Known about the structure:
Layout: E1 5-9, H1 16-26, H2 33-42, E2 47-52, E3 58-70, E4 84-95, H3 104-118, E5 123-129, H4 133-141, E6 145-150, E7 160-166
Parallel strand pairs: 4-5
Antiparallel strand pairs: 1-2, 2-3, 3-4, 5-7, 6-7
Amino acid sequence: MAPKIVFRTYQTESDLEPAMKLIDQDLSEPYSIYTYRFFVQQWPELCILAYDEDTQECIGVIICKLHPHRRGCMDTHFDSDKMQLNRGYIGMIAVDKSYRKHGIGRSLVVQALETMKKMGADEVILEAEANNQGALALYERLGFIREKRLFRYYLSGTDAYRLKLWL
């Protein structure tokens, strides 16, 4: 039976510890407490946590931001009179290994995208490890495209893809 999952946005500093634990277990890059605080204090509505309703355990998290971005000369998807875009960025996402394949990661991304759209985002970008086929497939099913390969992007020397979604 699928677990009953409850989603909510970041509320207090006490939400940071379980989020950091999940991300540190899952992602290859180390992040300092200051990085997390940079995101959650400026964009708490874009930091979404997933909890198992029965155990009250944090089992998923996505941490994002939204900021103005000067449009590039190649960016023809938007109104040509618009000199600045609002760019969403998915910085971190993690789901506890024992809860995967239940759509939690997809739900976190979709909720973050919906919130970014309500906040006026024109596009959303992220980076994913080039060898993380599950993540790449998830993002591509949601409409992201591979914009660029970033060679030796991560500290481990692993390549990444920058993915982009126009909203």
